Amino acid sequence: MERWELAVVGAGAAGLAAAATAARLYKNRGVSDAVVLLEGNPKPGKKLLATGNGRCNLTNLHVSPASYHGDVRLADPLLQAYSPDRVLEEFSKLGLLCRADGEGRVYPRSLQAAAVLQALLQGCEEAGAVLRCGWGVASVKPSEGGFLLQSPEGERLWARRCILACGGKASPKHSWEEAGYGLARQLGHQVTELRPSLTYVKSSRKSLRALKGMRVKAQVSLLLEGKPLWQEEGEVLFGDGTLSGICLFNLSAQLFQEHTAQPEVALDLFPEWPYPELLGYLQGIAKSHPGRSAWELFGGALNLRVGEQLAKELGFSGDQRLGDLRLPQLRQAAGLAKNWRFPVLGTGGWEQAQVTRGGVPLKEVDGLTLESKRCPGLYLTGELLNIDGDCGGFNLHWAWATGFAAGRAAGEREGRKSRA
What region holds the RsdA/BaiN/AoA(So)-like Rossmann fold-like domain (predicted)? Predict the structure, then answer.
């Protein structure tokens, strides 16, 4: 049976970062063949390749606790220790150049997720970490002062230390399975309720079918009994019974507590204009172009199909002219465009989600090394932990931070000079 200093379970973002970091530290001390990286899929980094529409938004210059949910207070020390600058320094050591856009989102300079994966794989190879694909882990048990790992086919290996970097339940087509939570439970950890997050919002409004595929810029608000609970500006994509886009994905992360009333999404299609200015604009259009169809009231300012849908909801008929519209109707039009409401029925499921809400409570691991407080020598990383972030690189940043930290902590532990 093979024996290793460290087994890293999962060759995704956190696992690759952990394996490259730990193997480099072992190598610097003259310990060879120390780290094995186990991946259930035929190839590593499947989910990483899909991030950012293939461009890999790998961190954000504005990382702060405010962008995260879950055990945020306990995550703060690690987020401070692994700032965006420090994460980018680690990638620079791997030879990867990065650049930020105007909103702080950081991408590889090539805008290719494949470049990020290649840099991490080369880092693992250069440091001597051994990658085993198609080697899923079905069980992990404490054994001989270390851990005995077994695959579904019955293959076994022993490791002195173990890092769980298996990812979560979200986007299962990009994962081997959500095995990590089961492995964490086997080793004495709790797992909070798991829910899909960063996904689309479902609504019963019938007009969504007619708007399928249309996009608008808007301020998006989550309302409960008419009171705003959360707001963000961004692009909204209409679907058949759904609302999506980055701001809606972030809104979906706010829908986990039980509400006494049905939540609503409100769209302000003119966030740059207060109501009086919008009303003045509509009055001017109606006065200047009285012969145009009433359905063209928003034609010069909004997506044409969206503008026509607003006119329909306002009850304008196809043969009405702009000159026929009276002040009360224009006021109603301005009000709808500033506060277009959609009842919320729920969110998309695991297939559509980008990240998992919930996981192993951070109180069960060391805040800076990620070593388990319940099972010494075990480390937990990334999506397995009860932390999830907003869209914009925050979840990958958490994966890198936990992967680098766990890899460093495990790699600094004394090991043998070579593997027998």
Answer: 6-408
